[in-house]
Write a structure and sequence with these properties.
The protein is of the alpha+beta class. It has one domain: HIT-like (HIT family, subunit A). 24% of the residues lie in helices and 23% in strands. The protein is built from three helices and five strands, in the order H-E-E-E-H-E-H-E. Strands 1-2-3-5-4 form a five-stranded antiparallel sheet, covered by helices on one side. The radius of gyration is 14 Å and the shape is globular. The chain starts with 5 loop residues before the first helix and ends in a 9-residue tail after the last strand. It binds guanosine-5'-monophosphate (5GP). The site of guanosine-5'-monophosphate has 13 residues, from strand 2. Pfam families: HIT.
Amino acid sequence: MAEENIFSKIIRREIPADILYQDDLVTAFRDISPKAPSHILIVTNVLIPTANDVTADDEAALGRLFTVAAKIALQEGIDEEGYRLIVNCNRHGGQEVYHLHMHLLGGKPLGPLVA
Ligand code: 5GP
């Protein structure tokens, strides 16, 4: 059993976050330390630690990450200009929170992917 983390507490609304969307599969909230004018995290409600741990059982939740990202991009008014979706995995990927999540970043030109 993977260890619970800060995102599990946000999903259960035990600690505050600016939650934009929640359903049975995913929760979306603003990143506490935004790297762009719009920086939203969309997380699976079930605890999947990393991209290495996904299984076929998770396909509905993983698909939902994309449909919710598109919905929020529209709400944020960044859909036309564009945005970036990122999933970090483990140390070399720069993952800090071991609870699978997609970053939605936009609202300014983001530059090249890798510095
Ligand atoms: P990672 O590096 O794991 O892909 O991204 C983790 C993200 O979670 C970081 O961008 C970080 O700013 C954000 N984060 C960490 N702790 C909290 C928190 O307590 N609340 C919110 N809203 N975001 C957090």
